[in-house]
């Protein structure tokens, strides 16, 4: 199966990537080679094989509910292009709703 | 919202409501995947670390207590607990999460297929024309999963902190990464009152479990509703709207009532309902479309690679089941069996606030189980009215269990009449003085001494020879007149039972 130019643009939009027409063609080709590889895998008989959720064979890794030190504010904001009253400044949000 | 508009809409239309309830695990010491403390408010970004800031190279590790809290929530709501589950990443671009994804659960949530039963009484009954008065109904729970809460955004420069018109926004990640359980119900709810009762019941279950403070105003419990209407008898669902921003139980009820009427009237006038998200404005008492640009939601969920899956054994689940506290349904049944109070009393005492049942049991412990019904009466009537009128919670009231126990005892031993008890209650609620002290101070003691009552009875009878003759001639209805005269003479302090006895004796 081949990915269409339109699908490449949709995936780029979801990832908030601005692609030139040349890049759409270039990445479309790369994505297609990945999909071809998946088609190859599909030819295997995978009946009864559980999907792999994780590469390591471990479960139930948790930690105790015990507080640890937080970062000092100057370290928190060290890489922030702009800060105001201890908060990160975010440019005007043109569209978008609140997420739960 | 005029109640009759809702009632009229619900006669013709059946509402179909499903709820999505997010509850922050506020009683945990730390966030879901890092050791930052869980608190409300505070200096922005004072409780963050490389993990909840999503800094490169940081590795999240799930909080064992958060996993247990979620499984307890599932057990308390009759859910199946998954033998195998995992976290997923939900990808979206919004600055309330520093990582551009939220760790949540997708096709393998911890809990599925549960239910909660709710009792509908009073004003709620008439909202269901297909039911007769008070009823109990079961609301299915689709799933409960665990995820991390987002940070808080403050929009600057626009009107009333709104996002539209803002020049820029401020991101505070103190809340980001706090454990959040999301419960989704089946579309089993049919009225605004059922929705309110369900949310209230769930809050009490969560409070009993001690997993959250469930403060709706501070947002630690947030209820969103999907609502549609269909003609009665129809089995297909109508087009639904999602209603958000209801930060009290009353707001939940009123927003749904508004939305049901709006959809019914839209359809009746030949219009149609659009699938959209609507925002409840508690001031204007309306829902309005958020008019956000139609966006294809494609969260591209994939298994969280930084954390390994979970396998819950039957033994582990049973150890959690064994530590479940007494839940509201059990408490209601126990109050009925242990103290012999009617179902209605037990429903009210356990239905809205955990403190009510605690208060009741404390008062009964002092006054004795034989006075349980009398205590329940005082709580359901005088105490509830007092709390409503003053607009305060039980904890804020000056009335404590020992005062109600003493008041009930004073009535039962005949020291004061039940009419006087109402006055004593009003005074003790205001001053916090003990009933005994109030009775003493006000000289309110009921006179049960038959000698003193006889004296007054003699005087009253001597002053009303005509009525006495009429009574003896068969007009026995005049007894009320004599009792009234005696009570008036005695300033309302005579024991009515003794007055009746003495009068009956003297008039024979």
Explain how this protein is built.
The complex is a heterodimer of chains A (100) and B (508). Chain A contains three helices and two strands, in the order αααββ. Chain A is flat, with a radius of gyration of 22 Å. Chain B has 508 residues and is of the alpha+beta class. Chain B has three domains: 294 residues, no CATH class; 115 residues, no CATH class; 57 residues, Arc Repressor Mutant, subunit A (Orthogonal Bundle), CATH 1.10.10. Helix content of chain B is 40%, strand content 19%. Chain B is built from 16 helices and 16 strands. In chain B, strands 2-6-7-10-1-11-12-13-14 form a nine-stranded mixed sheet. In chain B, helix 8 packs across helix 10 and helix 13 crosses helix 15. Chain B is elongated, with a radius of gyration of 30 Å. At the A-B interface, strand 2 of A face helix 2, strand 8, strand 9 and strand 16 of B.
Unreliable segments of 5+ consecutive residues of chain A: 96-100
Percent helix of chain A, as a range, is 25-40%
The count of strands of chain A amounts to: 2
**What structural category do the secondary elements of chain B indicate?**
alpha+beta
- Name the assembly state: heterodimer
How many angstroms does the end-to-end distance of chain B come to? 60 Å
Q: What's the count of strands of chain B?
A: 16
CATH class membership of the domain at 5-42 in chain A: Mainly Alpha
Question: Rg of chain A from C-alpha positions?
Answer: 22 Å
Q: What percent of residues of chain B are in strands?
A: 15-25%
* Largest sheet data of chain B: 9 strands, mixed
Note the topology.
The complex is a heterodimer of chains A (100) and B (508).
Chain A (H helix, E strand, L loop, with lengths): L4 H10 L6 H22 L30 H4 L6 E2 L2 E5 L9
Antiparallel strand pairs in A: 1-2
Chain B lengths: L2 H10 E12 L39 H13 L3 E2 L2 E2 L2 E4 L9 E4 L6 E10 L14 E14 L3 E5 L11 E5 L6 E7 L6 H18 L11 E11 L9 E6 L2 H20 L7 E6 L4 E4 L12 E2 L6 E2 L2 H9 L5 H12 L3 H9 L2 H14 L4 H19 L10 H12 L5 H14 L3 H8 L7 H14 L1 H8 L6 H11 L6 H11 L2
Parallel strand pairs in B: 12-13
Antiparallel strand pairs in B: 1-10, 1-11, 2-6, 3-16, 4-5, 4-15, 6-7, 7-10, 8-9, 11-12, 13-14
Helix pairs in contact in B: 1-4, 3-4, 6-7, 7-8, 8-9, 8-10, 10-11, 13-15, 13-16, 15-16
